[in-house]
Amino acid sequence: MDQLFGVMLLGVIVFVSWVGYLSYQEGLKIETSKRSGEAWLQWLGNASANRLTAGFQPAPCASQALAVATASEASSAQDVGNAVPVPATAATGPGWGACFKALTQANGPWASHINPFSGAQVRLVPKCDKTDLTVAGNFVLEKLTPTPPGSTVPVVASLLSDGEMLSQKIQLRLTLCDKGGDPIRVGEIEF
Fold it and tell me: How far apart are the C-alpha atoms of 60 and 11, rounded to whole Å?
């Protein structure tokens, strides 16, 4: 009977150790994902100051308002008599989608951030969803629009779409989806 108790106790110790190891590995994956999100926010914060200046790289992330002004100046300087002004809609560029693609391409600043849950590159998802566990380790990026003073809700959050123009600074919120599809807020930044 004593030997049976000893074997059972040993089995419980092994099982608890194994569960602790698995929990540690999951926690490590979440912390790795958070560090990636913090690196994204740091890059966005550092780039925010220079994004409105000429020559900003990657170019798709530069202010499209600056691109419109530069294109208009170039066309007027090229041939004053025959120049056709560049319409603002044509020169505004593709927006956030092209910027995100430039940031995550092979030589982009976010290319090294890998989703530890899937082993693939981190991607943006529309929302953290408990019924879709493939969102684990990915991010939700929302645009925060301030409401008029006196409103009960200070900001309205909306998904940052690919076509969102980057002509002026915008407030962004980054949220991480954990293993169970629950949201973990990483932070907010102006870009």
Answer: 58
